[in-house]
């Protein structure tokens, strides 16, 4: 009789431990499905948070306007950086979890993941964006050959995307830029045709550490180096980037997103720089979510 009681107690302990272990596993979540209630409102699913990038970016200011204009009470934009945003997106996507991020095209994330923009009925993010090349005043007189290259520089979103993918896959940005240059010799030749080689003339290019601008700035830098320039790259925030060109401490930027993203800086420093025009068309900014999320418009966030 005592043996039976002991065996019974052992069985009860085994069952209890098994149940507890199963509950613990369930609490940890996993790779097979979302760790949140997908039937809950989207705001609850993501903690009423939009994962953003650099606090000084025009995209972030536009997103603050989105929260205000769409009356998204309780929502906030989490500031950070481009790499931090993509890291959060990668974690969420790999776990099939909901997330809303500030996004732009072109960007390698659209090649890696199945994503979609949320419709913006109020048009706060604007329509198509264009990337411009901006030079300091007097650059044409001081560095005429570099000015010619910068003025001619133009490529497509597919070109930029090719460089970004190489970098994302582990290639050094300089190596990725040179690989693209080697594969697109005819395009590069059109930028440097008739340009005289120089002997170590110094030029500085400012850029924001977004994947898109890392790609474009390194490509232009390598092309300038190929004709003899001593190029310095200065990674800064958007405000100091524009201020640098305006005060002459930076010679040029090739990542000015207009008319929306950098609109405030363009207006603030207008007259203190030269706009060399569009170097890439077909860009876009807005709120981006994984395609598996059942949401299509910013209005659905209410």
TrEMBL record:
GO BP: choline transport; glycine betaine transport
One Gene Ontology cellular component annotation held by this UniProt entry: ATP-binding cassette (ABC) transporter complex
Protein name: Glycine/betaine ABC transporter
One Pfam family in the UniProt entry: OpuAC
Presence of keyword Cell membrane: yes
UniProt keyword annotations, A-Z: Cell membrane, Membrane, Signal, Transport
Record's subcellular location: Cell membrane
Signal peptide, first to last residue: 1-26
Upper lineage: Bacteria, Bacillati, Bacillota, Clostridia, Eubacteriales
Domain of life of the native organism: Bacteria
MF term (GO), any: amine transmembrane transporter activity
Main location: membrane
Domain ABC-type glycine betaine transport system substrate-binding: 42-183, 202-302
Organism: Heliorestis acidaminivorans
């Amino acid at each position: 009789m005592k043996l039976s009681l002991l065996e019974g107690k052992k069985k009860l302990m085994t069952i209890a431990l098994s149940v507890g272990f199963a509950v613990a596993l369930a609490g940890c979540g996993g790779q097979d499905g979302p760790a949140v209630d997908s039937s809950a409102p989207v705001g609850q699913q993501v903690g009423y948070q939009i994962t953003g990038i650099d606090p000084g970016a025009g995209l972030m200011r536009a997103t603050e306007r989105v929260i205000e204009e769409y009356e998204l009470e309780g929502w906030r934009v989490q500031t950070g950086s481009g790499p931090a945003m993509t890291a959060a997106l990668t974690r969420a996507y790999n776990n099939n979890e909901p997330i809303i991020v500030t996004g732009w095209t072109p960007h390698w994330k659209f090649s890696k993941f199945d994503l979609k923009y949320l419709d913006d009925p109020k048009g706060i993010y604007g329509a198509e964006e264009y990337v411009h090349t901006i030079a300091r005043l007097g650059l044409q007189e001081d560095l005429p050959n570099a000015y010619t290259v910068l003025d001619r520089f133009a490529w497509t979103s597919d070109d930029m995307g090719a460089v970004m993918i190489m970098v994302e896959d582990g290639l050094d940005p300089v190596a990725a830029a040179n690989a693209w240059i080697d594969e697109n010799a005819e395009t590069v030749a059109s930028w440097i045709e008739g340009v005289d080689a120089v002997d170590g003339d110094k030029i500085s290019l400012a850029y924001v550490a977004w994947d898109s601008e890392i790609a474009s700035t390194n490509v232009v830098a390598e092309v300038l180096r190929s004709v003899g320039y001593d190029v310095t790259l200065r990674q800064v925030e958007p405000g100091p980037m524009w201020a640098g060109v305006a005060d002459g401490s930076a010679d040029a930027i090739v990542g000015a997103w207009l008319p929306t993203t950098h609109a405030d800086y363009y207006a603030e420093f207008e007259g203190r720089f030269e706009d060399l025009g569009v170097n890439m068309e077909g860009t876009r900014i807005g709120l981006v979510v994984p395609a598996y999320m059942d949401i299509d418009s910013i209005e659905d966030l209410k």
